[in-house]
Amino acid sequence: MTHREDGTIPPEGYRLEITPEAITLSASDAAGRFYGEQTLRQLRGPSAFRAAGFAPDPVPCGVVTDHPRFAWRGCLLDVARNFRTKAEVLRFIDLLAAHKLNVLHFHLTDDQGWRVQIPEFPRLTSVGGWRHGSMVGRHDGPERDGRPHGGFYTTDDLREIVAYAAQRHITVVPEIDVPGHSQAAIAAYPELGTGEPVEVWTSWGVNPRLLDPKESTVDFYRRVLDAVLEIFPSEVIAIGGDEVPGATERHAWFVDRMIEHLESRGRRALGWDEILDGKPATSAIIGSWRGEEAGVVAAKAGHDVVMCPEQHVYLDHRQADHPDEPIPVGFLRTLADFYAYEPYPADLPEDARPRILGAQAQVWTEHLDSVRRVDYAVFPRLCAFAEVVWSSGPRDFGEFSARLAEAHLPRLDALGVEYRALDGPHPWQRRPGVPGRPR
């Protein structure tokens, strides 16, 4: 294959020319070359997605000219609720790259676990990195499985993950969640809260236990963020800010101090849409998760926005109303629903459209306690989402689903992805008797 540099091609775009004599790949940057190679891999057939031992199929002749619709084509992976090993994260990055996604939003801390090593504060992982048990399914009772759960990534692990992702043109955006979703940190250092000893949380849901927004807590988290910045070169660092029951003006002040600290280090904060209540600096990017309205408000106010509304792109939400659907939580969102999602809200003013950086699918893992469960929840709906954020023009779900069944599911088979079959879960993918909480 011959590579050519062509400055007329948009960033991340490519032109792939295939004749009986030669294959020529033109691009203006390294990302475009990478995506062109992914398209060629697709054309070579499912065997090209196996780790070894394949004979590629002949590729059809023709010209493919392509570039992405959005600059931010993301997927959040929550490893705080249920830890994923380094090898599993590297595999997930490979799957994102195969779908031309370019942001991994890495949710590293929450009430149920702290997953990033901070050498200055070792108790964050020695205490905050594991819990005594977990709620099974979603209910209001006291039942827990009694099974200790934990894990964390060393700084070297994380540097490896970042480098591995960069080779695949994926930016890893870490999230350190404040001032709510912080019980794991408070369990490690009780002075961050009320001073009362607590354990890492074993429940799911919204936790009323918050950080105490005092100067010493601000100083603690500045030092945490400085350690995070040493590991992650991403311009954007996520700071959470969501689901803070009983939040005060002082909590908004605390979030503003985190935004200012990142700005002082040449970075930008990404916060969930609740931080708009405190009127943060417009340098902060807003993740519009509670719906589309906050994204419109934020864009009109001058914020850059990543659209990730729970009504449309939460991959942990249930895929069918059938009783065989395992641990049915959240909104019913089918493959067709994901394919129909439009990242530009209908009521977004034309002059605010450039503020929409793109969109992001979310993989929250309260009910995804193994890589097999992640595969089931994510695929093939992430395939539909990837096409939405990459491709422009009209969409035809019938045409997409035919392509998916005929050409792309065999690629997922070759990759070893245990996706949800189009006609429902296999017997071993069901979780009979485990309660969910549909919405």
Outline of the structure:
With 439 residues, this protein is an alpha/beta fold. It has helices spanning 30-43, 86-98, 123-126, 155-167, 183-188, 215-231, 249-264, 293-300, 310-313, 335-340, 371-378, 381-390, 397-415, and strands spanning 2-5, 14-18, 23-27, 62-66, 72-78, 103-107, 109-110, 113-114, 130-131, 149-150, 171-178, 236-240, 268-272, 285-288, 305-307, 329-330, 356-363, 437-438.
Shape, per Cα inertia axes: globular
Count of all domains: 2
- Mean pLDDT score: 97
Counting DSSP E segments of at least 2 residues, the number of strands comes to 18
CATH architecture name of the largest domain: Alpha-Beta Barrel
CATH topology of the largest domain: the name is: TIM Barrel
CATH superfamily of the largest domain: Glycosidases
User: How far is it from the N-terminal to the C-terminal residue, by CA?
Assistant: 51 Å
Helix content class: 25-40%
Largest sheet: 8 strands, parallel, barrel
Beta-strand content bin: 15-25%
- Poorly predicted regions are none
* Radius of gyration from the alpha-carbon trace, in angstroms: 22 Å
Strand arrangement, largest sheet?
5-6-11-12-13-14-15-17
CATH class of the largest domain: Alpha Beta
Number of helices: 13
Quaternary class: single chain
Enzyme class: hydrolase
EC number: 3.2.1.52
Organism: Amycolatopsis albispora
InterPro entries: Beta_hexosaminidase_sua/sub, GH, Glyco_hydro_20_cat, Hex-like_dom2, HEX_bac_N
